[in-house]
Amino acid sequence: MTDSMVRAEAVHKRFGRLEVLKGINLEVKPGQVMCMLGPSGSGKSTFLRCINHLEKINAGRLYVDGELVGYRQSGDKLYELREDEVAKKRSEIGMVFQQFNLFPHMTALENVALAPIRVKGMSRSDARSRGEQLLQRVGLGDKLGTYPMALSGGQQQRVAIARALAMEPKLMLFDEPTSALDPELVGDVLDAMRQLARDGMTMIVVTHEMGFAREVADEVVFMDEGVVVESGPPAEVLGAPRHERTQAFLSKVL
Amino acid sequence: MATSKLTEERPTGRPEEIKAVPVRHPGRWLAAAIVLVVAASIVRAIVTNTGPNKGFEWVWVGHYLFDSRILHGVVATIYITFLAMLIGIILGVVAAIMRLSPNPIVSGASWLYIWFFRGTPLLVQILFWYNLQALFPTISLGIPFGPAFVHTHANSIITTLVAGLLALGLNEGAYMSEIVRAGIISVDEGQTQAAQSLGMSRLQIMRLIVLPQAMRVIIPPTGNETISMLKNTSLLSVISFGELLFAAQTIYDVNYKIIALLIVASIWYLAMTSVLYVGQYFIERRYGRGFSRAERATMRERWLALGGGRR
């Protein structure tokens, strides 16, 4: 029944008159890493945000772990989920943003421990010790009490990854996690993500890091103008692209 | 070639400090002189005009400065400022959150509240609340359109203190809500999205993520509002509330030392607002820390600049 973690069936998304997603079909199996490539404006980030219902889709069906995103189906009628039900579903999906979006008025450890305490009802001491572990895991065991402003971009992004992991998500979404970083800081963040993939986390990564996609992804999806142009194992899509739009894009990026 | 010659002759190590003749600023000296002359003539007018019945009466100022009635007025001014600001801030936060609500009735109600209380003069509102019993002789507490549990005469509840607090607090709430709203809007959308993606509820996001960050934008103008409030309490003298100005008026109604007592009141208002200014300076410095704001030149640096930019 739930043999896929994410399944998209003809997903459409409009912003006013502008159609951003024009029928996306794809599937991510548990434990898989999918990398999404494509020029800016192709709809990758929008699709990612639809998965945890930060954006509502206009047509099609989107399932996470076998359940509809944002709706409940009864007969052939759809019912919108209540706000707390949406929040519950979101708490099971981790998301990492291009601009980190750490909470600037909290230390690294407070950032990581906040949601487990407030959303999961975990005790403060448990959340603290778990937060310390997670920060150690991303190589920031010595930055527990540091505020985001005093951290480099790469360190901030690793705190953001730890913050998402603290909710023990079954799926992680990465929205261009290294695009806002100085080149020499990209490596540490990619290492943390690589480690996560090795531990068996299901991940969807919107990225321009071709090396990472080639090495870590089980499947690469190339999107352009709101449709999936080409998808398949990295060796195929990146090594021998069949579609000319993919070829054109890769020749510019590589 | 010239360039290569320069390179050869350059001494090793740190070059000599630049000693140039500074630019002179005759305009600055002239402006300063004009200001000083004007200031001196004002001071002279005030100080020399102290004869009996000739205007300023400094002896009486000294006599009434620490009069117990004046001191009571000062205390009343301070506590009504505090209470009215408290009401204003609470109402402001509530109205701001209502204004940003997706429910059109809720946000419309907030809009209406702000529109009314910002659009009518504070003095009119004060008189309105004071004369409320003319419109509603009795006030009941109960289920709307249903039975009432408590009945009472309006003028037994609406004392001058309550009327004053209602007027100042409700008026302040309308202004504070705009300040709070600006603060909330100033917090990056990404903060809300990050909190949403962690599964936090709207109320949690507002309380734990958005409002603490909005404080940086909210606090400085709130200091200004407090200073305005302190001065606006003097309007309550029209409904005979015993604040500072009313205390001064009560005294000069009897002895006609009008100017002397207005100076006494002004001295106290200046003293109180000065304390608030100092407090505001420190609060602003604390909340503006780390955010781009050019450091202001110190007084000493400005004196040096007047003298020709010598350091």
Give a short overview:
The complex is a heterodimer of chains A (254) and B (311). Chain A is an alpha/beta fold. Chain A has helices spanning 44-51, 83-90, 108-118, 124-137, 153-165, 183-198, 210-216, 234-239, 244-253; strands at residues 6-15, 18-28, 33-37, 59-64, 67-68, 71-74, 77-80, 93-96, 171-175, 203-206, 219-224, 227-232.
3D architecture notes:
The complex is a heterodimer of chains A (254) and B (311). Chain A has 254 residues and is of the alpha/beta class. The model of chain A has no long low-confidence stretch (mean pLDDT 93). Chain A is globular and about 50 Å long. Helix content of chain A is 37%, strand content 26%. Chain A has a six-stranded mixed sheet, with helices on both faces. Chain A has a four-stranded antiparallel sheet with strand order 2-1-4-5, covered by helices on one side. In chain A, strands 6-7 form a two-stranded antiparallel sheet. Chain B has helices at residues 2-9, 26-48, 58-65, 68-99, 104-119, 122-130, 132-135, 154-157, 160-186, 189-197, 202-232, 244-255, 258-287, 299-306; strands at 138-142, 148-153. In chain B, helix 4 (68-99) crosses helix 9 and helix 12 (244-255) runs antiparallel to helix 13. The longest helix of chain B has 32 residues, at 68-99. The interface between A and B is medium-sized, with 29 and 19 residues.
Our count of helices of chain A gives: 9
Radius of gyration of chain B: 28 Å
Strand elements of chain B, count: 2
Low-confidence stretches of chain A: none
| Helix and strand run of chain A | EEEHEEEEHEHHHEHEHEEHH
The largest β sheet of chain A comes out as: 6 strands, mixed
Strand arrangement, largest sheet of chain B? 1-2
Q: Describe the oligomeric state of these chains in a short phrase.
A: heterodimer
